Records
---
Amino acid sequence: MTEPSGGSSKPRRPVVVPALALVLITAVGIAALLGGLNEVPDDPPRLGKGAVLDQGRYSTRFVESRVRVVPAASQFDEEKRFVELVFDVTNRGDDTTPVGMPPGKPEQAYLGTTFADSFVKITPTFPAEAGPFVFAVAKGGESRQLHPGVKTTVIVRYELEEGQRPPEKMTLDVAGFEFTAGFNDPSENWRMIATESGDRFVPEIKARVTLPVQGGAA
């Protein structure tokens, strides 16, 4: 006589889930509820033309970005065109500071203390020979200093090549400063706000500022 179809009559074994797997599943679930295993930092505030940003050591108004044409100084010279970023900056510290230069490499930005050091990233990028050229506007011409409590116009400019179209907009990732002791220096000074990440320090971006370029590409 053949056995009826439908499978074996033997009792089925219970499926055993290892305790470690249960722990991992639970941990992942809790992590997901708390915002994920790797927290993604919030996007910095987005600012535009005319906005004012408290950078700690400096108070900065983002005036505009524009194309500036400088006529030839003589018949032997040539007309030059620049993309300029224009700021009204007040040094809120007690000492005169240099205007400075934007950092050559973003990973080195945290070492800077000048106003222009706070531009951790400027987009789009330009060739090294195009600049940037940074100066303050003073009564006697150009200056490289920011005096305490004095609102000063600062220009950051890049030279355009002949026939080069200027960008439609310029975007800056801007850091801030705090008066505090250093990572390896107990004395208090103005330092860029940064957090440790592995073997390096990453500046905290206080704002991402986008300025349309007046006279820029259509």
---
Amino acid sequence: MIKTRLFIARHGKTMFNTIGRAQGWSDTPLTQEGERGIEELGLGLKAAGLHFVAAYSSDSGRTLQTMEIILRELAQENIPYKRDKRIREWCFGSLDGGYDAELFNGVLPRVFDKPVEELAYKDMADAIIAVDTAGWAESWEVLRNRILSGFTDIAKEVESHGGGDAIVVSHGMTIGTLMGLIDPSLPRSLALDNGSICQVTYEDGQFHIDAIGDMSYRQKGRKILEEEVHERA
């Protein structure tokens, strides 16, 4: 029986990532460094012999741009590709675009009067709602349900077509939330790097974590690019 596996990538490094701003549902494009990092990822996935049967991303510009680069480097631009707004990043409401340090080390800890490291995802969602003056932020129930249903439906669709490997591009906190929902014993902050891979297997209606924050594909791709530069020199 063919397994159903999701290779979930965090999007490439963006302008806001570079200057330390929280993006949420706001968006900025990948930087030149971010594009190169995803080229590394695509090349590393190809070198590992991976062949994807389908592709999925959130509907944010940074994930669409990331997926375009991955599929190009894999030479798999023509595989089935869908966008799903349920695997978007968390919405920070009126705090979207604010500095990370102010949001995560200032505003949110003050709501519960404890360090951000001690806040669970539910605490963070509650804190964001408490300080969001626009009324756009999502409750924990809405967040967990949309994230879990989004990834579950993706896995079910791949499984219904015979299984295999699918590439998925999403966002740091969204991916971290999924990992925590699969395995509640994991620490809340996984610090997933841009272009890292979290790999999960979907079997008998359940997710099983195979890897978290795997940077080996990017590292392999970087070596390939460096060798190409050396050969041209």
